[in-house]
């Protein structure tokens, strides 16, 4: 069975069990990490508060899919493009905070966030040589510091 079909079938079975109707679309243009989006009118239920249900649902789907396949299949599960939209907001936040840090010449500390969100911030600012980012603190209160690079290096 194709990996795309395996993912779709597994998600459709789970959706049926929990009583959610939705359409599963798989975008495997990135062979290392397919993007799977569920379009549903019950998105709020599947996403949960701050994406908690979505993360749990993705974990369950990955376990089930990889149990049925010889090789692990990497994919990101999304509902109604929630994660995509959230990533865009985080990238925008990163750019705005970097501008503030540069103009005010201060370090700015963002609110605690999970690892995948911190990664989005780090990547969004990775190509800006005048800005440095680092994660600080312990989970679950780990946060990002955005600071201007010192001129005296």
Strand-helix topology:
Elements lengths: L2 H16 L4 E5 L6 E6 L3 H5 L4 H16 L7 E5 L2 H23 L3 E2 L5 H11 L5 E6 L6 E6 L5
Parallel strand pairs: 2-3
Antiparallel strand pairs: 1-2, 4-6, 5-6
Short overview:
The chain has 153 residues and is of the alpha+beta class. The relative contact order is 0.11.
Describe this structure in words.
The chain has 153 residues and is α+β, with helices and mostly antiparallel strands. The protein has two domains: 3-80, GMP Synthetase, Chain A, domain 3 (2-Layer Sandwich); 85-148, R3H-like domain (Ribosomal Protein S8, Chain: A, domain 1, 2-Layer Sandwich), CATH 3.30.1370.50. Helices cover 46% and strands 20% of the residues. The chain has five helices and six strands, in the order αββααβαβαββ. It has helices spanning 3-18, 43-47, 52-67, 82-104, 115-125; strands at residues 23-27, 34-39, 75-79, 108-109, 131-136, 143-148. The strands form two sheets. The chain has a three-stranded mixed sheet, with helices on both faces. The termini are far apart.
Mean model confidence by pLDDT: 92
- Total beta strands: 6
Return the structural class. alpha+beta
The helicity comes to 40-55%
Low-confidence stretches: none
By oligomeric state, this entry counts as: single chain
- Identify the CATH architecture of the largest domain: 2-Layer Sandwich
């Amino acid at each position: 069975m194709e990996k795309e079909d395996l993912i779709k079938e597994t998600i459709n079975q789970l959706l049926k069990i929990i009583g959610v109707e939705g359409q599963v679309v798989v975008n495997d243009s990135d062979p290392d990490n397919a993007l799977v989006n569920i379009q549903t009118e019950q998105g709020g239920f599947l996403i949960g508060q701050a994406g908690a249900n979505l993360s749990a649902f993705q974990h369950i789907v990955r376990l089930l899919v990889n149990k049925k396949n010889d090789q692990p299949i990497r994919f990101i599960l999304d509902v109604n493009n929630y994660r995509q939209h959230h990533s865009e907001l985080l990238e925008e936040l990163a750019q705005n905070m970097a501008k503030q840090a540069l103009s005010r010449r201060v370090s700015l500390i963002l609110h605690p966030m999970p690892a995948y969100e911190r990664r989005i911030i780090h990547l969004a600012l990775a190509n800006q040589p005048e800005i440095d980012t680092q994660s600080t603190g312990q989970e679950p209160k780990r946060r990002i510091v955005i600071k201007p690079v010192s001129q005296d290096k």
